[in-house]
């Protein structure tokens, strides 16, 4: 053993060290990444004049804005838009997806247009939404929904189309009614596909909310961001950006948690 | 559903044969499209002010818009910036992605930030970039680069992580050097993921480029959509939107071709 260790090449020794201490190296790397990032941020913070501020200043600003400041009010405004958007995404997205999958004529008529609408950058449609519907809450919802609904529509559609013929045939042989067919075959089969779409929509609804707020008479979190950038208050903009990033990460994490829970549930339900 | 739909088939086939049905399905998009355009035209003429766009108005606006020099300046400005940014963002994304997949330490160092930024709607970064770079075309380029870099890096890392171990073992047995492992084995097997990442990046880059143009007052197609609309030139504005839509749809179709060409074994 000692001989082989002495004759081992440097590369092999490094490789062995890495596999033997993988979990420690991993923790060290995560710690180093946080320390490095904060250190660089703090060190560079003072060297760019008004264009950059240290990490501690940003956190102080965030604290000030959170307690008695405008951040929580903005969060309530944006949060309402976000939740209404997501709710409409789920209800309308699943309905449209099922209709496209189960009714051939609708699919033939609309599928092409849906893909074109999906590919068109929704932001470019904002001026027409404002001309037709104004700048209020519902026009904003419309823009946010147009940005975030498609993963659910397409996910449900593809899911419902991939139901194996045998499942439907078995249900038919055992004389299931239309209602039983939907309850016992179609909906359980489509649920995971819908969840994958909803997971994406949870993240996209946030993008949609911000776009709607930026371009239809600024409001909520987007208005805070714009306000800070017009007066070049870097600490302000950094604080709100960090807050929005934390919010976005939490929402994506929530989506992944729901999906993981669902996968577990499916496994226990099947076997 | 089989029974139900075949019962339905039987019912319809009594009145209409399968050929009539197929014809009906082929005609449906044209009918819906024509009906949509007709309702749009009539509704606007009957109830809305003159400046609101109509299908005939848009058709009439096409020649004058396309023959104007400012239109082509906008097209060149926006598309060159998008293509340049996507190219740069994709290449750096692929390199960082492969490196993250092959060197776990690098992945642990970078992943928190890359995933946090990936989760963040990039439009939220625009105000910060405006402060740093200014109300300039460079701001658009920076946002386009980040928009492509993040999805490409994440999908490349995912794809290059999921290589079958046997491939690497065989490579090592035949004395593959590190660049063979990275660019001969990891990169090709991540190819479908990379193309999917670039496709996603392209879509985000187009949307974010438009957003930057409006927020940072950078001349380009997206900016013109908004200014023409503010000048009550709705028809001309929609010609720009149509061009953007054609570009976006074309990119999507092209990426499907590229995936078939680069990764013919992958059908997903």
Layout of helices and strands:
The complex is a heterodimer of chains A (271) and B (268).
Chain A: H1 2-7, H2 10-20, H3 22-45, H4 55-66, H5 71-102, H6 104-119, H7 126-133, H8 137-148, H9 150-161, H10 165-173, H11 178-215, H12 220-230, H13 234-270
Helix pairs in contact in A: 4-13, 5-6, 5-8, 5-9, 5-11, 5-12, 7-8, 8-11, 9-11, 11-12, 11-13, 12-13
Chain B: H1 2-15, H2 18-47, H3 55-66, H4 69-102, H5 104-119, H6 126-133, H7 137-161, H8 165-173, H9 178-189, H10 191-215, H11 221-230, H12 234-262
How confident overall, as mean pLDDT of chain A? 87
Category by helix and strand content of chain B:
mainly alpha
Category from helices, strands and their pairing of chain A: mainly alpha
Order of helices and strands of chain B: HHHHHHHHHHHH
Main pleated-sheet profile of chain B: none
Provide a descriptive summary of the structure in words.
The complex is a heterodimer of chains A (271) and B (268). With 271 residues, chain A is an all-alpha fold. Chain A starts with a helix and ends with a helix. The mean pLDDT of chain A is 87. In chain B, helix 3 packs across helix 12 and helix 4 runs parallel beside helix 7. The N terminus of chain B is likely disordered. Chain B has twelve helices and no strands. Chain B is flat. With 268 residues, chain B is mostly helical. At the A-B interface, helix 3, helix 6, helix 7, helix 10 and helix 11 of A face helix 1, helix 2, helix 5, helix 6 and helix 10 of B.
